[in-house]
Specification:
The chain has about 550 residues and is of the alpha+beta class. The protein is built from 13 helices and 23 strands. The protein has an 8-stranded mixed β-sheet with strand order 16-17-18-19-20-21-23-22, sandwiched between helices.
């Protein structure tokens, strides 16, 4: 609509790109001669303001603080179903560089998630009620990691070859009967010639049993169903890598690998003549009676269907079908399928969330932990190994002050080391780690003072001797650790042993507050990443030392 305009201004000038967390001004102008009623201002699917009106010649100025969503943000003004004006704004990161963000989103984080066996969907926000959507990290690289693993398991792992040697089948005997007539003069046995020589024709009946081999069994239906899905997923991934540009350079170089997987799966289906009937069964229409209904709508993800198919796979004479059931069950539970459609705001989780998820995975990988599913619902999960457990966004038990809160305290990361033999059980070795995507306003090399004070309150409340604030900090070849150790007086605490092993008469403990500057390494080379990871391990080992 030429008579309506939407413009974005910053410091009195029109802009097309701003850094994150910048306050801009949206100017909505009605240059027509009639009033506009029921207008709605939206950002993607989010409604910023609804139900307002503009008189002829009026201009509405709306301040808007840009969130930490790096990428293209599209603002729209609508009147009912009609779009009056559109304006786009490119948002770039402020605390890390665009190159670092690209490396985190499309290279490092997908590999860490796959390495730690972690999901790409996790609930991070606890303040918006139980219906708050989870943080879904949809990534071509993460999907490629999972898809490659299952494709290799079938092809290079020999599973398809073992299945093809002894395909499952069933034999159903069916009684057949054929009635025929013999016409003309008949010469019978002399014993019956006397009374059977008069008819000019007589009837004959032929009985036999048919036992055809039927390969359209539940295990084979599962095999064909999965192979067809893998063919589609491999080709879809390759197409999105080549057309969207939302993939790492390494994935772009190896995209032909997924086309090859799809071709090998298709060749297997075509070379197995016995599976042709199975493919036809997947396309048949349902019969009238449910008992005779073929595999139309066959979906092994349906729990009712899966229970029967899995049982049939375990009872097969070929043990490879049991492996097929286990592999598909893992695929159905853990493979992350890419969305069919992507809007302008797709793939734009907040930078604070990306940074928090990445920091948690880096800490877990440095500690040698593996993701373990936690309680479903409002808790996210945990990383676990013999040395201890790293709780991620889970409520911390205890705390005299926190017990009075409606919402329990949830430090971003809480490391609980496994008690060692001979260790004093009353002596806590827990570590609280809060991930904050911000620096001190005056000094970018230090954590924000408010975050430090909040961590001190946590440490005192939960009797935690070591607390860490993780923040981006300046660009550096390795993580930087700034450790502050000082005695602290706890008013109502019993006497506690010092590190010297002597009991004091004072209610004083040694508390350790640390600032860990964590940001992507300046180079993506294997040698640089290895040094960066070794430095992080050394810093974490220092934090685990007994205070």
């Amino acid at each position: 609509m030429a008579n309506f305009t939407l413009e974005i201004y910053y410091n009195g000038l029109p802009v097309e790109a701003v850094p994150e967390e910048t306050e801009v001004e949206l100017r909505l102008a009605n240059r027509g001669e009639s009033s506009l009623e029921g207008l709605e201002l939206g950002l993607g699917r989010e409604k910023l303001r609804a139900g307002f009106s503009l008189a002829p010649g009026a201009t509405l100025l709306l301040p808007y603080r840009v969130r930490d969503l790096a990428g293209k943000q599209v603002f729209q003004v609508r009147e009912g179903q009609q779009t009056l004006a559109v304006a786009s704004l490119e948002v770039y990161p402020r605390k890390i560089s665009p190159a670092e963000l690209q490396w985190l989103k499309f290279d490092r984080l997908p590999r860490l998630l796959a390495q730690l066996d972690a999901p790409n969907t996790v609930l991070l926000n606890y303040g918006d009620g139980p219906d708050a959507p989870p943080f879904s990290y949809t990534s071509l690289d993460f999907t490629a990691q999972k898809l490659r693993a299952f494709s290799r398991q079938l092809l290079d792992g020999g599973l398809l070859e073992e299945l093809s040697q002894r395909l499952d089948y069933r034999v159903i005997e069916r009684s057949r009967r054929e009635d025929g007539m013999v016409r003309g003069s008949i010469r019978w046995n002399p014993t019956v010639q006397g009374w059977l020589n008069s008819p000019a024709e007589t009837g004959l009946t032929h009985h036999w049993v048919e036992a055809p081999t039927d390969y359209a069994t539940g295990p084979n239906l599962l095999l064909v169903f999965w192979l067809k899905e893998l063919i589609y997923e491999n080709r879809k991934l390759a197409w999105q890598v080549e057309t969207t540009g939302q993939a790492s350079g390494q994935l772009e170089k190896t995209v032909a690998e997924f086309k090859e997987y799809a071709g090998r799966f298709e060749y297997f289906l075509k070379s197995q003549q016995n599976l042709q009937a199975v493919q036809a069964r997947l396309l048949e229409r349902p019969a009238e009676r449910p008992a005779e209904r073929p595999a139309r709508g066959f979906n092994p993800r349906d729990p009712a269907q899966w229970a029967e198919v899995a049982r049939n796979c375990r009872e097969c004479f070929n043990p490879a079908y049991s492996r097929l059931a286990e592999a598909f069950e893992e695929y159905a539970r853990r493979y992350i399928r890419l969305p069919e459609e992507a809007g302008e705001e797709a793939g734009m989780p907040p930078l604070s969330v990306i940074y928090e998820w990445w920091a948690a995975c880096e800490i877990a990988a440095a500690l040698g932990l593996t993701f373990k599913p936690g309680e479903q619902g409002r808790q996210s999960g945990l990383f676990q190994a013999e040395d201890g457990i790293l709780y991620y966004n889970q409520a911390a038990p205890g705390g005299w002050y926190s017990a009075e809160r409606v919402q329990p305290a949830r430090p971003d990361l809480r490391f609980e080391p496994t008690p060692q033999q001979g260790q004093d059980p009353n002596r806590s070795r827990r570590i609280f780690l809060d991930v904050k995507y911000r620096n001190a306003p005056a000094d970018p090399t230090r954590a924000h003072p408010e975050d430090m004070y909040r961590m001190l309150a946590y440490m005192n409340d939960f009797d935690v001797p070591t607390g860490v604030i993780i923040f981006p900090g300046p660009a550096a070849p390795a993580p930087r650790l700034h450790l502050i150790e000082q005695p602290f007086t706890r008013p109502a605490a019993p006497p506690i042993e010092r590190t010297t092993g002597q009991t004091t008469g004072q209610n004083r403990v040694l508390m350790r507050l640390a600032e860990l500057s964590l940001r992507p390494p300046v180079s993506n080379g294997p040698e640089m990443i290895g040094k960066w990871e070794d430095s992080l391990k050394q810093n974490l080992a220092r934090l685990q030392e007994r205070p």
